Amino acid sequence: MGGRCPLRHKRAGAGAGRSVGSARSPSTAAAMGTGGCCLLLALALLAPRSAVARKCNLQGLWRNELGSNMTLLALDAAGTFSGSYHTAVAATNKQILVSPLQGVLQHSSSKGQPTFGFTVQWQFADSITAFVGQCFVDRRGKETLETTWLVREEVPSRRDSWRATRVGTSIFTRIK
User: Fold this and answer.
1) In 3-146, where does DSSP find H-type helix?
2) pTM (2 d.p.)
3) What are φ and ψ of residue 37, in 5° steps?
4) Where do runs of H (alpha helix) occur along the chain?
5) Residues 4/18, Cβ–Cβ less than 8 Å
6) Which residue, 75, 93, 146, 167, has most beta carbons within 10 Å?
7) How far apart are CA 113 and CA 136, in angstroms?
8) Residue 137 contacts by C-beta under 8 Å, 6 or more apart in sequence?
9) pLDDT in tens, 44-89
């Protein structure tokens, strides 16, 4: 490339040889040289990768858009985990109680945004909920759990089975 920075090009209203967004004179930009330009190029190429490379960690305290809180404990070597779920909403007149959950993380891929599943055994209702989802990390490092859930309520007979299952989605964000 003959010692020229590949980022330099002419833009409207700028002098030839000036870098985009540079307020420096052409002589200052030339003094920066190929080394400085390559450093700038390397930083630009590596910055997005470092944010994406951050792996999602399920362990911690999470809250969804309805205000329900979930605590996920450490994963074991097989990827299983436990925790507790305190729902903010329920279709019952009974007192809402913190309920246990059990889950598994799909073997972590190199992408760092793993899939998982868990069940919640409600302590205050005759129902159980299964969640499946994926953990995402955005460019700023913010983690979210995007889930789909099925809740199955106990019904008195097979004839009532049509009304026993509901489906929905929840997005959890990390609190701690």
Assistant:
1) 26-52
2) 0.69
3) -65, -45
4) 26-52
5) no
6) 75
7) 5
8) 51, 52, 54, 55, 56, 112, 113, 143
9) 455 544 444 678 899 999 999 999 999 999 999 999 999 999 999 9
